[in-house]
């Protein structure tokens, strides 16, 4: 592929980014008709457009070749380090900018070079026992995910007979991956249910988020310190085993990041996949009826990437993209969702006619590509499978174009997924409880108890 980004000409043909009147990103069209929103930006600006991200101007990259080129970063032009952000260094980013706490967490998402390689090495080795289906930890995790799904379905349908209504986002897609995160972190019953509840509250991004982040961070730091001293069959222990010089502070930051990546990203993917199946778009229903669940997840990721727009990158030198001069240190946001509507990717077919493609960008590419894509796909696949095994009929309780969406500059998902259901007379049996790979120091927290409390919180 020809390079899509070239060194910039000496003088920009337009004002600096901070002085451009940027297009608001969070508009009704962005939330309800994203394909048309991206198409409009592309028609007005080309492959890159200036947008206002909650009060901060940034360049939004819309073109598939350009997004892929930046992700791969074969020339080492792009930085993910926060100290590359010129406006922040100059004090021009509002201290109360809503995304700043997540950006300043200090995890591997915002690292480069040797430090990135070191942390990704820990992740790659640490995730392997849970993603390699020949390993006992992976088999045990899959069985646990199926049990969590069955517990959720049982609880949301109890007392209602064989038919009823449910919200499959709040009552299913969101709590299920948080249960998985709780298990991966190695939280035990002795800690009670508060860490899981704090994960839920943190992802809601309410006004008390700083206090919740501090409390959850302390709990995660405590469990990481325990796992460093006494390893178990959990993710922090696997990270410490893979990189012995990994510090508790580093592990804590990575595990907090995991709450967002697995808890939010995977929960969003579950909701999006179920919605795509029920709507019947992108050939998802055909894949599901043919038993190709993993392919259904893949097709849903094309049509509605959970991470519609990625966290910022910054060029190390001035570059030209399309008709714009991108100055060194300008924030650049890549949009997989927009790239998937680019004719360079779709071949001029409408978005709902795109055949399955492994060239999509929902999992990223290059140095910062998602290392947990197999785990997220497995969790989502099991969640969708258990749902359609337990229900003989599912249908949307609202027209597809009226499903309420989350208002987020990065995540693209549903706020609610109201459905009508009919329970199957003879559903497939739930997965049996696995034998632990090694004796655990403390028992895992009760899944039904945790789920019941989560659902009670939803009802309030």
From TrEMBL:
Its EC number is 1.14.15.31. One of its GO terms (molecular function) is oxidoreductase activity, acting on paired donors, with incorporation or reduction of molecular oxygen. This is 2-hydroxy-5-methyl-1-naphthoate 7-hydroxylase. Residues 438-447 have a biased composition (Low complexity). Keywords: Heme, Iron, Metal-binding, Monooxygenase, Oxidoreductase. Gene3D superfamilies: Cytochrome P450. The keyword ATP-binding does not apply. Residues 427-437 have a biased composition (Pro residues). InterPro entries: Cyt_P450 (IPR001128), Cyt_P450_B (IPR002397), Cyt_P450_CS (IPR017972), Cyt_P450_sf (IPR036396). Residues 425-447 are annotated as: Disordered. Belongs to the cytochrome P450 family.
């Amino acid at each position: 592929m020809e390079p899509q980004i070239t060194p910039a000409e000496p003088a920009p043909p337009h004002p600096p980014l901070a002085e451009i009147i940027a297009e608001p990103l969070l508009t009704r069209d962005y939330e309800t008709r994203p394909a048309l929103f991206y198409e409009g930006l592309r028609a007005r600006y080309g492959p890159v457009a200036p947008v206002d991200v909650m009060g901060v101007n940034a360049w939004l990259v819309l073109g598939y070749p350009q997004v892929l080129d930046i992700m791969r970063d074969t020339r080492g032009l792009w930085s993910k380090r926060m100290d590359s952000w010129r406006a922040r260094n100059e004090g021009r980013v509002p201290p109360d900018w809503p995304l700043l706490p997540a950006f300043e967490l200090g995890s591997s998402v915002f690292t480069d070079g040797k430090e990135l390689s070191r942390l990704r090495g820990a992740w790659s080795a640490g995730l392997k026992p849970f993603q390699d289906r020949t390993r006992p930890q992976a088999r045990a995790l899959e069985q646990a995910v199926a049990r969590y799904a069955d517990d959720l379905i049982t609880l949301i349908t109890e007392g209602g007979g064989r038919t009823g209504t449910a919200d499959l986002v709040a009552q299913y897609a969101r709590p299920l991956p948080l249960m998985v995160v709780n298990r991966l972190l190695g939280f035990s019953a002795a800690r009670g249910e508060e860490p899981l509840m704090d994960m839920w509250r943190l992802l809601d991004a309410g006004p008390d988020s700083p206090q919740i982040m501090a409390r959850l961070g302390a709990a995660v730091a405590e469990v990481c310190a325990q796992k460093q001293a006494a390893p178990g069959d959990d993710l922090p222990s696997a990270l410490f085993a893979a990189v012995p010089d990994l510090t508790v502070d580093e592990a804590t930051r990575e595990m907090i990041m995991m709450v967002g990546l697995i808890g939010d990203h995977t929960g969003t993917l579950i909701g999006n996949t179920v919605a795509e199946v029920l709507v019947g778009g992108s050939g998802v229903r055909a894949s599901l009826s043919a038993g190709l669940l993993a392919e259904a997840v893949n097709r849903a990721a094309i049509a509605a990437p959970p991470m519609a727009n990625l966290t910022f990158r910054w060029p190390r030198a001035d570059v030209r993209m399309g008709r714009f001069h991108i100055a060194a240190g300008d924030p650049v946001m890549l949009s997989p969702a927009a790239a998937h509507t680019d004719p360079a990717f779709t071949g001029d077919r409408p978005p709902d006619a795109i055949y399955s493609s492994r060239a999509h960008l929902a999992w990223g590419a290059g140095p910062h590509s998602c290392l947990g894509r197999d785990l997220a796909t497995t969790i989502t696949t099991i969640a969708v499978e258990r749902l359609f095994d337990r229900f003989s009929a599912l249908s949307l309780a609202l027209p597809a174009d009226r499903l309420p969406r989350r208002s987020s500059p990065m995540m693209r998902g549903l706020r609610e997924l109201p459905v009508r259901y009919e329970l199957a007379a003879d559903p497939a049996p739930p997965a049996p409880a696995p034998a632990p790979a090694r004796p655990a120091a403390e028992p895992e927290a009760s899944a039904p108890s945790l789920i019941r409390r989560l659902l009670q919180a939803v009802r309030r």
